[in-house]
Amino acid sequence: MRYPVHVGADGRVGALRGHETFPDVGGRVIGSTNNLPDYLTM
């Protein structure tokens, strides 16, 4: 399964236009930052 992301020539990663969220659950493809410790999110 391929993720709907775009990697630019400069290395920046972003969601493909029109595919910012997963269609089945609605979560953001790129995600977001948080303040949780790394050992909880890896």
Automatic annotation (TrEMBL):
InterPro entries: PLipase_D_C. It comes from the Eukaryota. Residues 1-32 form the Phospholipase D C-terminal domain. This is Phospholipase D C-terminal domain-containing protein.
